[in-house]
Amino acid sequence: MELSVLLFLAVLMGLLLLLVKGRPSTRGYLPPGPHPLPFLGNLLQMHRGGLLKSFLRLREKYGDVFTVYLGQRPAVMLCGIEAIKEALVDQAEDFSGRGKIATVEPVLQGYGVVFANGDRWKALRRFSVATMRDFGMGKRSVEERIQEEAQCLVEELRKSKGALLNPIFLFHCITSNIICSIVFGKRFDYKDEEFLRLQDLFYQSFSLVSSLYGQLFELFSDFMKFFPGPHRQICKNAQEINAFVGCSVEKHRETLDPSAPRDLIDAYLLRMEKEKSNPHSEFNQKNLILNTFSLFFAGTETTSTTLRYGFLLMLKHPHVAERVHKEIEQVIGKHRPPALEDRVKMPYTDAVIHEIQRFADLLPLGLPHMVTKDTHFRGYIIPKDTEVFPILNSALRDPRYFEKPDAFNPDHFLDANGALKKNEAFIPFSLGKRICLGEGIAKAELFLFFTTILQNFSLASPVAPEDIDLTPQENGVGKLPQQYQIRFLPRQRG
Ligand code: HEM
Fold it and tell me: Which region is the signal sequence (predicted)?
C-alpha cells in the first residue's frame, strides 16, 4: 500500500476515534448547549451572520445560560440582565477573571490591565484607576482637557467650511488626545503624521478583530495561527504602536523629575524604581508598554466609534438633533462652552446619548471573562478557567426593558415628565469587578464632544434620512458603523 494511502487511513482512523470519544472532556457540570464535534466544536451551529447571531439563536433553544464550544474551548454564555448580574455582581470575585480574544492574545499575552489576571490584574487595575484619577482629575481636570480638545475640534471643523467630510479621523484624534494627555502628558496636532499613523493602526486593528475573519479565528486560532492571514497584520500593527510607546517611555526616563510626576508614564516609572528590588513586582517594562497599549486601545476606539454612530443617528433622525439644538440653546446658550454640570439640566440630550450608546451596542458580546475557581452557578458547576461571555447585546436590546429594542428612540430613557429615566438593563460598560475602567471619562467625553459640536454646527448629509443605512459594517467583538460623509454647517452665533 502506498504511503499516502496509509497516511490518509491513519488520519481517518484518528478522526473516527475522536468522534466516538464525543464531546471534548471537561470537569464540572456545564450548562446545556449543542453537542460539540471534536476539533470543530460547535462550528456547525454557527450562523453566517457571525458569533452574535449564532449565540442569540442558541439562546432561543437553550435559555439564558448555555455552553458553546469555540473550537475546542468551552465558553459559557450569559444572556439577559438577570443572568449577567447574578454572575458579575452577585458572584463578582468568581467571575472576575479575563478570558482571551484569540486575535489579540499573541499581542498582549496576558499583560496590561485589560487582559491580565490574578495579582497582576489587581496591581495594574489599582494603579491605572488611581493614576487616571490623579492625572485626569488633578491639577487640570478631565473636564477641562475635554473642553479644550472640543474647542480645537470646533476650530478644525470651521476650517472645513461645510464641505463633506468623513468624521472618522477627527473623532479618533479627539478621543485619543484625551488618553494621550493623561498617559503622555501632551496632546497631538491633528496634522501630526505619527499621531495619524497611530490612529490608523488602531482603527485597522479594531476592524480586523471585529471582522468575520476575526470571529472565525476565535474558533480556530490553534490551527489558523500557523498560516498567513489578517491576524498577522494585527501583530504587526501592535509592534509599530508599541515601538512608539517605547520611544515615548525613553524620553520620559530622560526628563523624569521624581518630585513632580507629570503623567501616567512618569508615575509608572517611579513605581518601577520603588519596586526594583522586588523580583515579583508587576511594575516591569513589559507591563508598562502593554498597559499603555491597552489603555489606548480600550479608550480610543470605543468612544470614537460611539460618537461616529451618534452623528450617523442624528443624520437619520434630524428631528432628534433639532430637539438637542433647542435644549443646548435654552440651557447653555451660544457664548460659553458646555460643562459637565449642564448635563443634569439637559434630560433630553442625556437621554439621546444613553440611547446612542444603547443602540450602538459597541461591544455586543462584552469582553470575555473567566471563572477564577470551580464555580457553582444556577445549579451548574463551571470549572476553573472556563471562559464566560456576558452578552451585553442581550441586555441592551431586551424587549422587556426597552419598548422598541431595535429602534432608535430616546423615549426609552425619558419618563412621562420628560426627566431622565434610568434603566437597569443599560450596561454598555458591563458590570462587576471588571467594569470599564474609563466609564467616567467616556461619559464626560460623549457629553462634552456631542454638545459642543451641536452647539456650533448643524448637520447635513448628501443621503436622505430614509436612505441612511444603520447596518453595522463589522459586527463581531466590536460593532462598527458604515463609513459616511457629513457636513458640519456653522450655526449663527447670534
Ligand atoms: C463609550 C466608550 C466605552 C465603552 C462602551 C466601554 C466599554 C467597556 C466594556 C464593555 C468593557 C469590558 C468590561 C468587562 O470585562 O466586563 C471595558 C473594559 C475596559 N475599558 Fe472601557 N469602554 C469605553 C471607554 C473606555 C475608555 C475611555 C477607557 C480608558 C480611559 C476605557 C478603559 C477600559 C479598560 C482599561 C478596561 C478593562 C478593565 C479590566 O479588565 O479591569 N474604556 N470597557
Answer: 1-22
Distance 429 CA to ligand 1 centre (A): 6
C-alpha cell at 307: 460618537
List, for residues 59-81, the tens digit of each pLDDT value.
999 999 999 999 999 999 999 99
pLDDT at 239 over 70: yes
Cell of 196: 495619524
Residue nearest atom 32 of ligand 1, based on CA coordinates: 438
Report the top-level CATH class of 26-490: mainly alpha
Using CA positions, which residue lies closest to atom 3 of ligand 1?
Answer: 302
pTM of the model: 0.93
Q: Which residue shows C-alpha cell 462550528?
A: 43
Beta bridge partners of 390: 78
Mutate to test the pocket of ligand 1, among 436, 437, 441 (most ligand atoms within 8 A of CB): 436
Concatenated DSSP letters of 318-382 = HHHHHHHHHHHHHHT-SSS---GGGGGG-HHHHHHHHHHHHHH-SSTT---EE-SS-EEETTEEE
Q: Which of 426, 294, 285, 297 is nearest to 355 (CA)?
A: 426
Annotated binding site for heme: 436
Domain ranges in the chain are 26-490
pLDDT in tens, 336-351: 999 999 999 999 999 9
Q: Which residues contact 259 (CB under 8 A, 6 or more apart)?
A: none
- CA dist 389 and 94 (Å) reads 14
Q: Which of 441, 347, 354, 439 is nearest to 396 (CA)?
A: 354
Determine the atom of ligand 1 nearest the C-alpha atom of 306: 1
